[in-house]
Amino acid sequence: MIHGSLVAIVTPFQNGVIDEEALINLIEFQIENGTHGIVPCGTTGESPTLSHEEHEHVIELTVKTVNKRVPVIAGTGSNSTKEAIRLTRFAEQAGADAALLVIPYYNKPTQEGLYLHFKHIAAQADIPIILYNIPGRAGVNMEPETIARLAGECKNIIGVKEASSSIPQASKILHLCGMDFLVLSGEDALNFPLLAIGARGFITVTANVAPADVAALYDTFAAGEFEKAKELHYKLLPLNEALFIETNPIPVKAALSMMDKIKYEYRYPMCEMSPGHFDELKEALSSYGLIG
Fold first, then answer.
1. Quick one: fold of 4-212?
2. Which of 148, 275, 276, 289 has its CA 20 to 30 A from that of 94?
3. Which tens digit of pLDDT belongs to each residue from 227-270?
4. pTM of the predicted model, to two decimals?
């Protein structure tokens, strides 16, 4: 059920609070343009700055708005195992289709600690769990052997969002876990290459602004139209680069504000782009045809 272009959707704010109307409109924009799933409360959704109540509200609102038209994969990770269990149970009760759990950040656990963290969470919830390996943010890499150990012992750990920027590591995960294990690209620049080695989709930032093309990249590849998929990969390349010119989600929220989809607003420590980078992003969006 979970495959394709899964948008790591932003959390829009207005005057310091969640802009519910803008979030609903963003979800509808995604579904209308072929996005295969919605991922709220991830890194792109500024989850570290959401209160527990806000985090739960965004998940509930997303599930309600989507209304089972596509899967909802709720971000429920934390560097506190107890908090991650609470959020994961909430997502399950709210009707999310799966939970996305980032590896514990700042704690910098050992591989055994990672194994125990996720095994304990998986034992406390029935919802399908997708691990989220992002060493650049977390300070530690979850090794393929650890992922394979968890996949073998925990029936509800079904996949991983792999954002290590390492194609060899993604290949080893698939080799150890088998092709039925759900590997999702966590880096837009590597979406096409990871599909080629057996990934079944991507949790994508770029789909926030170009959902139809990102979905088409998956759809054409899945249909065996590899040349068309490759063309879309290279078409999207400058946009992917521009959307990561500063720390995510700073550029993508700036882009959506230029497209009149959301207010240009963040929560500290995220802040507005530097003027030079803002102009570069604006030029990239204009060249792509997303703004006039």
1. TIM Barrel (3.20.20)
2. 148
3. 999 999 999 999 999 999 999 999 999 999 999 999 999 999 99
4. 0.97
